[in-house]
Amino acid sequence: xxxxxxxxxxxxxxxxxxxxxxxxxxxxxxxxxxxxxxxxxxxxxxxxxxxxxxxxxxxxxxxxxxxxxxxxxxxxxxxxxxxxxxxxxxxxxxxxxxxxxxxxxxxxxxxxxxxxxxxxxxxxxxxxxxxxxxxxxxxxxxxxxxxxxxxxxxxxxxxxxxxxxxxxxxxxxxxxxxxxxxxxxxxxxxxxxxxxxxxxxxxxxxxxxxxxxxxxxxxxxxxxxxxxxxxxxxxxxxxxxxxxxxxxxxxxxxxxxxxxxxxxxxxxxxxxxxxxxxxxxxxxxxxxxxxxxxxxxxxxxxxxxxxxxxxxxxxxxxxxxxxxxxxxxxxxxxxxxxxxxxxxxxxxxxxxxxxxxxxxxxxxxxxxxxxxxxxxxxxxxxxxxxxxxxxxxxxxxxxxxxxxxxxxxxxxxxxxxxxxxxxxxxxxxxxxxxxxxxxxxxxxxxxxxxxxxxxxxxxxxxxxxxxxxxxxxxxxxxxxxxxxxxxxxxxxxxxxxxxxxxxxxxxxxxxxxxxxxxxxxxxxxxxxxxxxxxxxxxxxxxxxxxxxxxxxxxxxxxxxxxxxxxxxxxxxxxxxxxxxxxxxxxxxxxxxxxxxxxxxxxxxxxxxxxxxxxxxxxxxxxxxxxxxxxxxxxxxxxxxxxxxxxxxxxxxxxx
Length: 655
What we know:
Layout: E1 37-46, E2 72-78, H1 84-92, H2 96-105, E3 110-118, E4 121-128, E5 135-146, E6 151-163, E7 166-174, H3 182-195, E8 211-217, H4 227-235, H5 240-243, H6 247-254, E9 294-300, E10 319-328, E11 340-348, E12 357-360, E13 364-365, E14 372-377, E15 388-393, E16 404-407, H7 414-422, E17 425-428, E18 437-447, E19 452-456, E20 460-464, H8 468-475, H9 479-491, H10 563-572, H11 576-586, H12 602-605, H13 614-619
Parallel strand pairs: 1-2, 7-8, 13-20
Antiparallel strand pairs: 1-11, 2-4, 3-4, 5-6, 6-7, 8-9, 10-11, 12-14, 14-17, 15-16, 15-18, 18-19, 18-20
């Protein structure tokens, strides 16, 4: 597999690099009988409703040598701005924090696997693209604990998935604040563990997973010691004197719900509470005591007892976790909390030896006829009629960030099943769907059943000549295309799912806004040639038989007639004798493209073809022929068009 990382330069003030994880063999999209996942990075940060910083490379350890060996990154955020105006904006657009992390991680070949949000609590899970086929059974859930369970300012969000046959759960929590709320924190954590249940035959609860990462703003404080002694211990770098008074350390030995959870040594200063914009602890009138509120823990499921001669189930063969790094990042000052990061080396013995879908493609596509894709599905793979194969540019951000796609064939019958098991199936990208120019691309098979990518290829080259026709059609689209583009981006800037049916939903119960129902927009003219419409039917162009508008010769002084004056002029032309006289003297002519009335032509405005020029024709003295002659053919351009009449196929009507 390619192992490329963009060149980076070190920044002043970044945290000391953690020890590099041991280099281990990787699993490429080819077959492999065993696997060692070198490292997983976990980050937690209470951002305090702040705007994202300009750079987070040091937080994610992207400018150090260990980046090449990090395979997954889980990022938990708390107190992301969730006021009503921000939530409305985030419902239309991706939130700024998620955008930042995707922009930073995509050049390093990290893809957003899953995300879940509950008001200000967000969890994002990223993985290297070549691991995507081995990340299955992805589900999300969230639990509100604020205001007795009715408000999501406190609670937990989780992403669970199968990693090479092992069930892993990432749990991001924001628990109640203040020193005296320790018991409330225990009750809320127990509620989260009890409420969050997942579908499937195994690992229905959080603690049923083989490996659990628990992190977030857990809000545990330092008991008994006064603020002066705490600050003295911090300044003197004798943090061990504070460990035994830390509420979470005490709870791990006394609370049954925390039995089995492990945490590395707290060798970094307490991460709360700082004056925003500085590295100074709280200097306000409240003078809160510093505390390690932001924590990262993990738990390995103990082997089940009483399994008899069969031993543990296959996914529990070998599982070991060692923490390579546990540190805070003092260089980030946008919040009153400091972010905390941990790097884990996780060793799996995988029961997966090949991906669910294997894709075969040529090393280079230099001609459109070479855009042939062969793929073969594993026995037991649950395919769907909504499965598709996406073409991605190297450095894509998430599974829906494709350049183009083609539907995967889903012919039924035992004969087809036998054929695809032996020789595989084949699809082909149309010439219009292929990107022009040179670049590196990846193909991925998206499974609608599992809402994940079930197979990927290694990068290959596409070298196709650029089309001049596409640029000319784009230039002729006019201002209407810009308006259409802005509307489309406003409604769905990131969601480019090709499925015209219902996509499988995650189980997240996070608040969400209602979708825009019944709103149909025509794509801009620049997208007509290479449409990426969710509909499998191709869109047709505007009708060619719209009648030409004839007007009398314009006088030089009336070239800039406005819209209202045009309406008055049209009404004055209702007298047919005047119209005939003008036509006899001047003769019919086509209106120039610069004329205001010409810009009212639907072909220039980009309006739907259902808009007709009946009023203009009446003003010009035209009489529509009988309905039987079909002077204006009725076209059903969308499922919402009224079935008023029908036309024969030879009239060129769309279905």
